[in-house]
Design a protein that fits this description.
Structural class: alpha/beta
Number of helices: 11
Number of domains: 3
Largest sheet: 6 strands, antiparallel
Strand order of the largest sheet: 4-3-6-1-2-5
Distance between the termini: 31 Å
Number of strands: 12
Low-confidence stretches: none
Shape: elongated
Length: 398
Amino acid sequence: MGLGFTGLAVMGLQFVLTARFRGATAPFGIDIIYYFHRCVGIVGMLLVLGHYIILRVWYGQALPPINPAEAPWHMTAGRLALIIFVGLIVSSIWRKQLGIEYDRWRFWHGVFALVAVALAILHISGVGYYTAAPARKILWTTYSASWLLALIYIRLVRPLNLLRKPYRVVSVRQERADSWTVTVEPKGQYGLKFHPGQFAWLTIGSSPLRASEHPFSFSGSAENPQKLRFTIKELGDFTRSIRDVKNGEMAYVDGPHGIFSPDLYPDAPGFAFIAGGVGIAPIMSMLRTLADRGDKRPLFLIYGNPNWDRVIFREEIESLKEVLNLRVVHVLSEPPPGWSGVTGILSDAVLRESLRHESCKFIFFVCGPKGMTRTALHTLRALGVPLQRVHSEHFDMA
């Protein structure tokens, strides 16, 4: 019984974790909150599963039959909730392998999560153990109402607020490596103040009430909040349609979010960046902002790509060296003839060699593919860089 109550409490908490309350996410970074959401969701499902297995194995004779036509309605509700909880976890962890399109998965994930929690609450109420006392009934009613309020905020209040602050697409520019920079301007409002390196959930061509938003890092300067740039690579279901976005389309921006920013370290002696592919987007926001501010602190960028033709912002990075105290190391796995730079991938050996003359007192920002990020974090830890000086972001949760 304790496992069942605890499992449901954990599952209900998921609505609050995904509500993007800035006060709750600010100390950790919203990507960590979402990662915690995923891990705790698995724990909650295992708790509920353990609740059922123990009852079935040790108290099976006392349980009603599994057949819904013969079992009490509240027992069927609990069993359906368990099946849905397991389905939610499986479809989240193996979404890509199952071939489920992201927007469709996200919509039905929310719907079935609500249905599962509602069925579980009905199951607990129908069984009646430990909930008949007035104080306990008030506790569970209040706790359940908080989940409902969080859901109303996520699906209704926040989208309605976004509708009052529309943006308009003013340009869609092709970059290298199948990437595109979308620039939006505020319509009838000042704009959006953000810190370089932060991100926002972007909705283009549809209402925010449809929940068709996607997280993207700002790639423009934070000193120009009236022109928001997002550099997006064609990787998934939605991003492959970015090239078809037209000037003048309506857009909505939910942000800023995240703590992946040099602004949080005004006294840092310098910054080092490790990027792979389109992971350069938030780092470009940092470099552009620092250039606009006339920052003269030492900066070091290690940027990995397959080949020279896929180096996003190649020319601009070179030009930024003239206005910033910036040193750049390009790492190519398929270098052109006559290449004199570093060859290979961003492996432990390459990173160690590139970083051997750099100060471990710098603040490090790492952004790129999951494998590259893991390697970079491992290498920095092995080099003795304190954990509090290393920051990374990842959003490939499902």
